[in-house]
Amino acid sequence: MLGRSILAYLPVNLANVVTAFGTIAILTRILEPAEFGLYAIAMITMQFVHMGLFTWMEAAMARYQARAEREDDVASHLKTLYHLAAIAGAVGFLVIMLALYFAPLDSKLTYVLCFALGSTCLQVLFNLGMEAHKAAHRIKRYSITFSTQTLISFTLGILFILHTPLQAAAPFVGVICGLILVGSIDLVFMWKRMRGGEYQPEKVKTYFTYGAPLCIGLLLSYALNSADVYLIAVIMDTASAGEYSAGYNLANRSLDILFIWIAMAVTPVAVTAMEQHGKEGSRDILKSYGATLLWIAMPAATGIALVSKDAGFILGEGIREGAVSVMPWIAIAGLINGVMTYYVHRAFMLSGQTQKYVWALILPVILNIALNLLLIPTQGLMGAVWATIFSYLLAIVIATILARRDYPLPLPARAAFEIAGCSAAMASAVYLLPLSQMTPGIVTLLIKATVGIVVYILACWIINAADCRTFIREARQRLVKSPLPEVAE
User: Fold this and answer.
1) Domain contains 362
2) For residue 487, is it within any domain?
3) Which of 130, 140, 139, 111 is nearest to 42 (CA)?
4) Are 291 and 417 in contact (CB under 8 A)?
5) What is the DSSP string of 435-467?
6) pLDDT tens-place string over residues 325-369
7) Which of 406, 409, 403 is nearest to 283 (CA)?
8) Which of 214, 234, 326, 352, CA to CA, is 20 to 30 A from 343?
């Protein structure tokens, strides 16, 4: 079941791969290091603002869609949230533009932020539709709509850089155009599903009570992930922030794509199981999910650490050296963060104890900022890396303890042990390859990746790590029968 759901989201994952690596590869080449640093700061700021203002509505859409279906109240559920999002987007845009006008920021940064933060006020309406499609298991519609918007925005952003003076603001202008073009079509589809519904102000409190702690938690989580870029820019310079951001994104984004891919397939299934069968029903889903997550993510993190120098060709020369130096350690940090964010934190969502999600992050964020301030002046970019790893370790321990108080979150210890052994076998095989005389690049990357994947799959198959034989058979059958899964419209 999980294998089929994961494969159904393959088009979205491929679009994310193209845009994630394309963005890093192209922007680090056509933008100067300082310009790329401005882009990175604007991107992080945009995410902070979006999480703080809008994510509670998106979270409510994802969590309460199944309940609205059970209560035959989908039209009012959708109309209430879209009504809120339209008002929040309009008011948010005005407040943001006023804040930027009076903020004592560098004029170049302010210019880029205007487009970045303006795009996020449109993004909320599009995201509501995407969350509704996932929650209602309209996987084909979600995949096509999201992938199209992502690819159009990416393509237009690159064209705007090459043919307009927008520079670091161009990718965000591309996003705005993509949201208008594709989002308008999806809005028409969703509008039909709101017919007969009513705006229900009494539901707003329920949605906000559930979603607001998630907003705060996401802000803390993102601060844990990204505050170091701000601190590097202040303590060192914008170009160094660009180097760190490029290395961080190349390593962490590679893992993040995998985590998001699996999580977007499993979360709606787990929520539906929770609504229909209670905690035990959703626990069975999470048990398989945790093992599958580790089976895919742990060797990916190991592989990124092994081939970081070879993957450096993806980056522009201006930021390559500093970016590559942090990638192996960021891969480790990304694995810890991914398991925490996309597995442990699901327990807070399912139990409804979202306020504990916030408490689980306060100490790690404080530790992260303190260690960054202490280590960056003496250790440079690696100081930010050590701060990230130590704070992630503290965060996952606290989150696991708090989550298991209200939800029977299974800990896939046996699967983790088996997968770690297979990953070690993979790492040993790659490390022993006689490639020391070859120049790091795409050829050595492909050789190492091929050998690593083959050794890992064979090792897993031999010991049936995380019951992978079932997953592999299901994936093979699914791909042979239908490359494009038939799913609900």
Assistant:
1) yes
2) no
3) 111
4) no
5) -TTSPSSHHHHHHHHHHHHHHHHHHHHHHTGGG
6) 899 999 999 999 999 988 898 888 788 777 788 888 899 999 999
7) 409
8) 326
C-alpha pair distances (Å), 487 with each of 136, 142, 422:
11, 10, 34
CA distance 458 to 181: 45
Residue pair 246/94 in contact (Cβ under 8 Å)? The answer is no
Domain range for 98 is 2-481
Residue 465 region by backbone torsions, left for phi larger than 0, else alpha for psi between -120 and 50, else beta? beta
Which is more confident, 264 or 320? 320
Closest CA to 149 of 266, 6, 10, 16: 16
DSSP 403-422: HTTTS-----HHHHHHHHHH
352: DSSP letter: T
CB atoms within 10 A of CB 77: 24
Give the C-alpha separation, 88 to 43, whole Å: 20
Phi, psi (deg, nearest 5) at residue 396: -70, -30
pLDDT at 238: 86
Residue 404 belongs to some domain of the structure: yes
Number of domains in the chain: 1
Q: CA separation (Å) from 59 to 64, 91, 200, 256?
A: 9, 20, 17, 19
Q: What is the DSSP string of 176-188?
A: HHHHHHHHHHHHH
Alpha-helix residue ranges (DSSP H) falling in 308-406: 317-339, 345-351, 354-379, 381-403
* pLDDT value, residue 378: 93
CA dist., res. 418 & res. 34, Å (int): 44
